[in-house]
Specification:
The protein is mainly α. Helix content is 65%, strand content 2%.
């Protein structure tokens, strides 16, 4: 294992140095044909993978060595103090007693390292290579290219003339706008619907809840695909509008950039309000009625009761949900891809594949699946990770749900 890891690290500077050459029949100097076998070269992707694993094992080995030295030092102090040293059996028994938390966390931590941390590290390394369609292992090697991919994303260009900087800026802006509208329209309107349905005197409450829950019962991808067909230029909505004489030409619900963005937000409201309504309904039932009674005695009207009692209470309880929903909308692949596919295509010279309604996550999918620009896609993934991570940590730690955790206990 040591020799194998050392060999992969030796090739890591390339990664790899020998390309695969195709075999086949060739004509020799004497005019005779002979078969030349394929010469299998280095696989840059595997070299990078094994090199990273080797570095991780080295770090783990160094940490284990440090832990052993530290444990030996403590054992020496215990011996000098005249204390009994724990045996190997005692150490094993402690993992079911005093250190049981380590036993419980071992498997989840291992899964976190394998399925989260390692892919992130691998992605970071890919961002510094020219891994694309022209450098596809195992037939070809890819090489380190420094910050070329970062320069492309922040204003440079890659082969083909695609201005990634301009495209990235526009898509990032739309991604943030989409996340804000998708999160807060569903949250506020869902809360309003929940308040109206739970208000005393409202008849047929079960019917209204059932109607709204129907959109939750139907799989979301089915609803989105159906809406995509209905709102198309030749869909049933445009057909009926023209048949009834309301419009003379099809409304470009999904084929015009600005109209498509508004349409996406409205459709997302339709499929998102029921989730918020169900969640807020449960919270409203737990708000003490005495608070509203006292407010009415003091002369507070419905709006004042809402802003002073209902909204603070609901917001305090649902802030973690609001943050996670905002981050989820930044990466909401399904709604955009199933409804518009990211289209229509941007009207920018040199742009190939990016759409007006693309989010960073859908554009990232196109760069990987259609263009095979793995290096640039890795840079965008890193930026998405940093954006969502910073927003989540800052907003959550500054929220009242964390600072005043026991206010509503």
């Amino acid at each position: 294992m040591v020799l194998f890891g050392a060999g992969q690290l030796a090739l890591f500077g390339g990664p790899g140095f020998t390309e695969t050459t195709e075999g086949g029949w060739i004509i020799g100097p004497d005019g005779t044909e002979k078969l030349v076998p394929q010469a299998v070269g280095d696989n840059s992707l595997l070299i990078l993978l094994y090199g990273i694993l080797t570095m991780i094992f080295i770090v783990a080995f160094v940490y284990a060595w440090y832990a052993n030295v530290k444990a030996a030092y403590y054992a020496q102090e215990m011996k000098e103090a005249g204390q009994n040293l724990p045996s190997a059996k005692d150490d094993l028994h402690s993992f079911a007693d005093g250190q049981y938390h380590k036993t419980l966390l071992a498997i989840p931590l291992l899964g976190l390292v394998i399925f989260t941390i390692f892919p992130i590290i691998f992605m970071v390394f890919i961002a510094f290579t020219n891994y694309d369609m022209q450098h596809m292992p195992p037939a070809h090697l890819f090489q380190w290219n420094g910050l070329a991919n970062f320069q492309a994303v922040f204003g440079g260009s890659l082969s083909g003339g695609t201005q990634f900087g301009m495209v990235f800026g526009r898509i990032l802006l739309w991604t943030v706008i989409w996340a804000i509208f998708a999160t807060f329209t569903n949250y506020l309107l869902g809360m309003v619907v929940a308040i109206l349905i739970n208000k005393k005197g409202i008849k047929l409450k079960k019917l209204w809840r059932t109607v709204l829950i129907m959109t939750v019962a139907v799989p979301q991808f089915v609803s989105l695909l159906l809406m995509s067909q209905m709102l198309g230029d030749y869909g049933i909505v445009n057909s009926l509008l023209q048949k009834w004489g309301i419009t003379s030409a099809p409304i470009k619900f999904l084929s015009d950039g600005t109209v498509a963005k508004v349409t996406i937000i409205l459709v997302n409201i339709w499929i998102g309000i029921p989730y918020t309504m169900l969640m807020v309904s449960g919270i409203l039932m737990n708000i003490p009625a005495d608070l509203y009674e006292s407010a009415r005695i003091d002369g507070a009207g419905p709006f004042r009761q809402y802003f002073k009692i209902t909204l603070p209470y609901v917001l305090h309880v649902t802030t973690p949900y609001l943050i996670s929903n905002f981050v989820g909308n930044l990466n909401n692949f399904g709604v955009i891809y199933l409804l518009t596919g990211g289209g229509p295509t941007m009207a920018i010279a040199g742009v190939d594949g990016a759409g007006e309604t693309d989010l960073l996550i859908t554009w990232l999918y196109k760069l990987i699946m259609d263009k095979k620009l793995y290096g640039v896609a890795s840079v965008i993934s890193i930026l998405m990770f940093l954006i969502t991570g910073i927003i989540s940590l800052v907003t959550y730690n500054r929220s009242a749900s964390v600072k005043n955790e026991e206010d509503f206990m």
